[in-house]
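REQUEST FORM: STRUCTURE PREDICTION
Request ID: SP-0412
Submitted by: Lab K.M.
Chain count: 1
Length (residues): 82
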Amino acid sequence: MDSLGVVEEVTTDGRLIVRCENLPNLGDRVYDSSQREVGTVGRIMGPVDAPYASVNGAGMPKGTKLFIGRKSSNAKGKRRNR
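STATUS: Completed
RESULT:
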């Protein structure tokens, strides 16, 4: 698992704002240090050289280190063109 970053802010609706160390993809799953799933990356915002990610899911306190697990790409979710 790659390091996502540290929780900078918790919004009023429970989303986590994380300053990114590694750039995630939309939909990547986010985990805490004990490898419990916290949520998913919903949005990436901010400047290109220091982006922030919005994580949809359970609230965590400020200063918590989060990690990303890359979304697996398998053929199960793909549609066939006929």
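NOTES: The mean pLDDT is 87.
Reviewed by: T.R.
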